[in-house]
Hints:
The structure holds two protein chains of two kinds. Chain A is an alpha/beta fold. Chain A folds into two domains: about 10-290, Type I PLP-dependent aspartate aminotransferase-like (Major domain) (Aspartate Aminotransferase, domain 2, 3-Layer(aba) Sandwich); about 290-430, Aspartate Aminotransferase, domain 1. Chain A has 19 helices and twelve strands. A seven-stranded mixed β-sheet of chain A has the order 1-7-6-5-4-2-3, sandwiched between helices. In chain A, strands 8-9-12-11-10 form a five-stranded mixed β-sheet. In chain A, helix 5 links the parallel strand 2 (about 105-110) and strand 3 (about 130-135). The longest helix of chain A has 20 residues, at about 290-310. Chain B has one domain (about 1-260): Rossmann fold (3-Layer(aba) Sandwich). Chain B is built from eleven helices and eight strands. Chain B has an eight-stranded mixed β-sheet, with helices on both faces. In chain B, helix 3 (about 100-110) links the parallel strand 5 and strand 6. At the A-B interface, helix 3, strand 1 and helix 13 of A face helix 1, helix 5, helix 6 and helix 11 of B.
Amino acid sequence: MPQPSPLRFDSLSLHAGQAPDPHTGARATPIYQTTSFVFRDTDHAAALFNMERAGHVYSRISNPTNAVLEERMAALEGGVAGLAVASGQAALHLGLATLAGAGSHVVASRALYGGSHNLLAYTLPRFGIETTFVNPRDLDAWRSAIRPNTKCLFGETLGNPGLDVLDIPAVAEIAHAHRIPLFVDATFTTPYLQRPFELGADLLFHSATKFLGGHGIAIGGVLVDGGTFDWEASGKFPELTEPYAGFHGMDFQEESTVAAFSLRARREGLRDFGACMSPTTAFHILQGLETLPLRMERHVANTRAVVAFLRAHPAVESIAYPELPDHPDHALARRLLPRGCGAVFSFTIKGGRPAGRRFIESLTLFSHLANVGDAKSLVIHPATTTHFRMDDAALAAAGIGPGTIRLSIGLEDPQDLIDDLGRALRAAQKG
Amino acid sequence: MELSVRGNRMFAYTGGRPFDRALPCVVFVHGAQHDHSVWILQSRYLAHHGHGVLALDLPAHGRSSGAPLASIEAIADWVVAVLDAAGVGEAALVGHSMGSLVALDCAARHPARVRRIALLGAAFPMRVSDELLAATRDDEPRAQAMVNVWSHSAYAHYPSNPGPGFWVHGEDLRLMQRQRPGVMYVDFKACNDYAAGADRAAQVACPALFILGRRDLMTPLRAGRALAASIKGARVVELPCGHNAMAEEPDRVLDALAEFLREPARPAT
């Protein structure tokens, strides 16, 4: 008799967390667009509220459609639980707020998405959470920035804007030596390109708005608990290992040896902060997730074709893509990202801001907007949009040149993308 | 709560309430390479519904110290020592897989201490394939992966355990990974070597409930039925799940347990 084997990644993308509806036979995940759920009787109600039974009470805390997304993402990442929330930003906040409070400290990579940087640098300090930013490539900087009150190390699997590859095994080792977890933003890589828990990370989140959905129609985020970190042994997280007055004196680590973080994040964070995901959004993200392996394979193939074209083009000054031998993390990328380095990258056009502006305005297939990870190819010129108030010196400090262009490569025919880029590059050099 | 048993510290989850020895006691015994948290919903519910609950971490598992016990009989005797340490006269025993053999053995050899038994994922003999047993000794990650896939019957669980959004397969795997090196082989060998099951089943005089998964690949349904048939008056509840019934069907397991524990004791004959 053949031995059973676990479902593989592509199959989990379609089946994890959902089976045909036993009542209606519906094959697709139904959208449970309801705020609340009827109790069987008063004892059932009390048991649900006191976490003596599993089930749904109110869609801010849990919802059957959202649960499919959460469990599927946990399966794809190799974790123990997922939490679907209103946005990637909400997922980051929920993760940090579950670990840290007033008087806490975070060590973060300085190569972050602007929204994450804003939260850590400007907003969380108002609530007593301080952050030290470090060069993600400098392991000594990570190590020396840790304080007794540091609650986690945080970085992006592929950093903004230069695609710094986070050395997850090395940074995780530093975190664990200090009995704190490594928390990563895995948005740019998705579990198809990298599974951070297998490399040593303990917690991760995605902006599901990007590649997980892939269609650019829904804002959402997913926080995933790897179940790897031993909060009790750490001794630094009384929020998870001592009775919590806000939930009947529950000691989350006693309740779940491996998913204490997720219990607290749901029972406190979703309940109190309330940044929940709409069930319809969860459905939209699930539609994307079903084809994630196929799409990511095509995203990477198209990106490689575009990178090769740009690299040979005389109007291009430089390209920051870790698969290129001159990228500082090339060797690391070959080790940690063997399936590819994603579909978002920056290049520098010759001619500075004016050339950048002309290039953007000459594109016809690429959409000029502030998003990444769409099925359609996207472009933005940071010096004239997201960072337009900065002078050239300030841009340089942020790793952005006046001619830097960020592309998010979609699923179109790669030759059409190359034709569009070629026309725009020629136009940019004529000014 | 923590107790000292035979000189070693042991941990028992008490269901989110202080343990009250004046209440009818229910002792949960986990299976191989697991800990108390596999019972979280069932034990928490019963603790809030009139029972004194002790969901044990067996020696060398979870938070309990000491060396792993090498035989089912030794674990059964240790459970009685826990009752002594907790000041409990008699208890209902609920056991899963290896823990079900412990409950069976305990009920047969310590009848004055066991009020009734509920056995989940139970079978006798509980033979472990040569390949799996060797893997538990030589390659724990491979053994854990094998047990993980054999313990589950589906890739979707409603409403999941301990609640929506939790991935049952992932939790089970991580829990096995969390146990100390070397424990897995001792546990599986204890199951494989246990030879007294048939005799013990014939000796059981207390009420017995079997909760069996129809798609159980670790302890197949027919073996569970056969063991149940050898205990006089034993009742069987079959559920549409695999070996990890507490996580795959938490509500139905709880309903069966709660009903069984509500019943009055069988009159002496």
